[in-house]
Write a structure and sequence with these properties.
Helix content is 40%, strand content 19%. It is an alpha/beta fold.
Amino acid sequence: MLSVYEGFFSGGARIVHSDIVLGLTEGGQRHQVLSLYGEVHREATRQLMADDTCYRALTAAGVGVTTLGRTFRGTGVPAGFTGPELAETARATAGADVILSLKEQPLGLLNQAGLPRRPVVVCLHRSDPENQGAALGELKAAIADGTVVACVCCAESTRAAYQAAGIPAGLLHVIPNGVDLFRFRPDAARRLATRTELGIGPAAPVVVFAARYDAMKNVPLLLAAARAWLGRVPDGQVLMCGAGMTAANTGLTADVAEAFGTRPGLTDRLRLLGVRRDMEMLYAASDVVALTSAWGEAAPLCLIEGMMCGAVPVATDVGDSAAIVAGHGLVTAPDPEVIAAAWSQAVASRADLAPALVASRERFSRTRMIASYAALLDRTAADVLPEFDDSPAA
């Protein structure tokens, strides 16, 4: 199998896909990865492939990762590719039976003429296909060509959105996101250790917001809710982590200044933690995991990871968030006062909701997710490889 990534940078889709590749590798499949970009500048952060947590996990497990070496500076996948880039892509695809495309953006490369023809399974992780630039057109072209043989949707909202955008229903398969239940679990020792590290008292209410600095995440709404909540909860703490969630991001600092206005002292309890490699620690230390996204989400990984660590999810109604949160947390209107009140309600209800969170763990299992991917890929190889005459298994 060959997975093609647009690039290695912080984000839930890359985390999920990389975990799937690792799980399939553990199960005996051979996997390689090709990344269009070796360096990405986005969310006010320079992100090098070799520094990325997913890259390190893949290579440590023996998965080969190569790159075309491009640098992303805020523009989409280019229409043109050089001869050496196409040659590298041809070498990578020639050795694969099936290609996995992480989202539809890499199809701009895979649709180039002259490459070895291989069946492609596209892994879709959003609920707004029309907002993905030229990528939807590339997906439709690859389907018309017969190259794309299946699309994996991480959420029902993804399937509905892509079907409404004209993707044939028969190609759309839903495999919900899952997480490592051993890594993401309630843990009193982790909770105490992380709170001690951050100087947070054991009884202080803590809200964590795990997201990249992007318009779809609606950071101004999160900050307005934080302003309202911190103003009425004297010992409350809000942790913000993800790409661009640092004081070095001038866009974020401007957002903070605007949101907190005449109460800048409250920002002493607003922690900007940037990209973390120990999310299981932050979630275990938290009482609430917050999501304020306005669009684009499908099955937000932060909600699942946070819930599995015992944090109560409070989310806006976007993508499959309401279905994920149902019975385990709260869905709110996109209003800062409503969100702030919901955070307090979630903190108060944490003990009462704990049994439901425990009972739902198997539903969000990484093992279930990977088994479903393995079954789909096995069916794909058996059903369509004979139609691709130049494939290695043909």
